[in-house]
From TrEMBL, chains A, B:
It comes from Discina gigas. This is phosphoserine transaminase. Belongs to the class-V pyridoxal-phosphate-dependent aminotransferase family. SerC subfamily. Residues 8-394 form the Aminotransferase class V domain. Its EC number is 2.6.1.52. It is an enzyme of class 2 (transferase). Pfam families: Aminotran_5 (PF00266). NCBIfam families: PRK05355.1.
Amino acid sequence: MPTREDILYFGAGPARLPTSVLTAASTSILNHNSTGLGLTEHSHRSTLSSEILTGASNALRQLLSVPDDYSIIFMQGGGTTQFSSVVYNLLGYWVQRELEKAEDLEAVRGKLRGAKIDYLVTGTWSQKASEEASRLVGEEMVNVAADAKAVGGGKYGKIPEESAWVLTEKEKSIFTYYCDNETVDGVEFPNFPMALGDGAERLVVCDMSSNILSRKVDVRKYALIFAGAQKNVGTTGLTLVILRNDILTRQPTLKTLRSLGLPIQPIMMDYKTIAKNGSLYNTLPIFDVWVAGEVMKELVTAGGIETQEAVSGRKSDKLYATLEASPKLFQIVPMQGSRSRMNICVRILGEGLEKEFAALAEAQGMTGLKGHRSVGGIRVSNYNSISEAAVDKLVMFIEAFAVAHSV
Amino acid sequence: MPTREDILYFGAGPARLPTSVLTAASTSILNHNSTGLGLTEHSHRSTLSSEILTGASNALRQLLSVPDDYSIIFMQGGGTTQFSSVVYNLLGYWVQRELEKAEDLEAVRGKLRGAKIDYLVTGTWSQKASEEASRLVGEEMVNVAADAKAVGGGKYGKIPEESAWVLTEKEKSIFTYYCDNETVDGVEFPNFPMALGDGAERLVVCDMSSNILSRKVDVRKYALIFAGAQKNVGTTGLTLVILRNDILTRQPTLKTLRSLGLPIQPIMMDYKTIAKNGSLYNTLPIFDVWVAGEVMKELVTAGGIETQEAVSGRKSDKLYATLEASPKLFQIVPMQGSRSRMNICVRILGEGLEKEFAALAEAQGMTGLKGHRSVGGIRVSNYNSISEAAVDKLVMFIEAFAVAHSV
């Protein structure tokens, strides 16, 4: 009958949450702030809910220094819902902007010929996002500007050199999409790609589902950032979206979209509708917003994003250094320079050793270490809620395992 | 500092949940079944989660006697997401069925001319659903077969007589949509509309968000039933969908949709993808599934849907009878025959009396009684989790209020 202290969970998401927040949640779900009602029972339109929304939004704004001309909205449906939403809304924005320039639908129609959405495909999730764009707007509008599998011998593990990227010319680029951290493949962008400029030249959209709040981000470089909450921020069912306000205001009419043969977003994927209604166009799961808010407030109290970035770096450095010390036993999957601080993917060389590693670790309460079912191996997920003490214990375990299997 | 026992909450949703379930949830969120991890932290792909999904699905199947050739899927995004999903998927089904008959795209194109989706607009939510269909496929494909506002002098409160409905001829009817219970307006269909046949002639889609599991339903009469969980079943963030299996299998290719100029559903609204992946195409909030499962298992134990139907009827009968006893004070909003057992909407005649009613009730711990902000008045929501004792207390309060304001 293990307690929370007995289990160190390194799963890739849904991820461990701070015990402090879950202890509060345990009370809140039954009787929130002594209101006689649990938080899931309170109206999403109550003053209480409105304060929770504002609190969570403010904490996120503070942590990432979100500029005033960016909005924060909360949505449902996870990252996969955003794969579709960004296509509809950013394409809409691009069309409206061109229409304002040209004031002529025919000119926009012409401009659309050859216009592309650029995808940097560096792992499983950016691949899925690009496939969804192809479903919605057709392959001819999707340009895979970087294809990590092509340069990785059919496997993900290296972000292609920027010099090899084939980005659409700026005039024809609708937006550029990338996934900052690929959970399945353990690949993370070391920093904002130089090739994408400063955010003014190209609209940049980024999926930060698995590394948000683990390091500083210059929000100004992005048109839009989204993140499913269930890894670094909170519970499953909540998605954070940070986007430039002009994406909300510059959107074409349905008539324009129809006459250009472009898809119309379902209302729940319409950012301007969600934003206009303060994220409450329909019933938002306020309990999940509250959990995320509590997690973010703790990060603020602990010293903000700088502290978290330092901690994340220390933890992943230790893990990689320990694995690198036994190169005949541990084969780190991604290449140097593409390695994730959040998901450390490694193969253990030797028949049955991965199974043994996971089983031995589990016997010591360290769980969630199996790699994604599509790629196998071992994966250590090192999100914000993983303490340095937990990493230290895992490091000691890895060292002992290496000694026992020294070759 | 009220306890849960002090507060009788009659809010329209998110609604009260059984204290027994929330007490279990309070433990589960911190350390589920002594696994050392809270339920929101467990992988949605674990055996544990898979058992939770199966358990919830089986309970729903048992409660509503869902036939074997129907699937149950769990989704995110609430009823509003379904407003869009049903349009994409049922239109897709209709096209594919016609294509199988005609084996010729041109014939289907011809058939599409004049084909309509029929909406029975009986309140705020069915109106929103019809508006979303118009956004996605254009007004010309949407037929408001019944317009309750038109017969109600600009207000909702009466389901138009079936004889006055203008349904599209069967051959041209893509599907027929209605909302079984209108939460805002207190309007509920007394039973399955005769005019829609037996489910074989027309595809019938029904929003049961606010009355599901409160009475028996003949699932066979429907192509699809959906319900946001946060009123009668569980927490916000989960949606139940029950649909006929052939809707999953008979779907056109993207190429067919494109060449017919029909919209393509975003992947998260693609029922066949969600079903094929056992509701786990992306990360599903398993905690919410678990809560819904526990609520449904309690309903099974309490005697199933027959018991619940009897209880719901007794509770709403008492409330209506009490209000009807003072007709000079209480004006029930909807007409006889259209009155909801779930949301009892009433106006109190006399300056300031509604405010006084709500305030006095609140002072006695009876809360959530204010009508929807769009219509005002008093609304008593009488979902499954509202006990007969709670209704009795409210009935006594209403009687005392009537005596104090006898006119």
